[in-house]
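Practice record 12: protein with flavin mononucleotide.
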Amino acid sequence: MSGASGTPYAAAVLRALLAAGESVDLVVSRASRLTLLDETGIAFRDAHYRDDLREWLTRGADGKPDTFDVDLDGVRHWSAGDLAAGPSSGSYRAKGMLIVPASTACVAGVALGLSKDLLQRAASVTLKERRPLVVAVRETPLDGVVLRHLVALDDAGARVVPASPAFYAGATHLQDLVDFVAGRVLDAVGVEHRLYRRWRGDLGGARTD
Ligand SMILES: Cc1cc2nc3c(=O)[nH]c(=O)nc-3n(C[C@H](O)[C@H](O)[C@H](O)COP(=O)(O)O)c2cc1C
């Protein structure tokens, strides 16, 4: 997670990965702690990450507690400043990496190979190992600098999946819009989920069946 707005997208992706039986190496950038605090009121603590994750992930996008069940056994947390952490090396076992949400600063850092923290280093490792990297960028409008960095990431093999909800899947609640973006992120790496209703080609059908 990097420091763009959109922590509900990260929560939905995390829940779906765990529900799909995937194990997750979680890295929360310093700036992401600010957005988490701003968007949920949770001050994320490395030393108590399980407690904080449980409080966060069991809530809905509307902040309502106990909306979801979550089993955190599959989560391993790494401090963003820990450049000696497992995901810093290509020899560490990983299927791929999802940056959700992705700040434009993180996009720039990965596009330029800066590795300023564990998040950016792990992303560069993911690219060099030719593993799937998904970048759920969240910013608007986009200027030419960011667009060029996004093209560089695409050229390097990353999938750019903007945090850009669609309305054709019958959304009625905030959570539906969040789940659409989370589902498209997971689609990009072929993880099964039931987060949104797929388009089936029947115009208007999404509202009538
Ligand atoms: C409340 C808040 C919301 C932010 N929202 C965004 C955003 O939506 N997109 C973005 O690119 N940056 C956003 N930023 C700015 C980033 O947090 C900032 O560029 C930071 O340096 C990103 O660092 P990181 O990529 O290491 O997490 C936001 C910052 C704050 C405090």
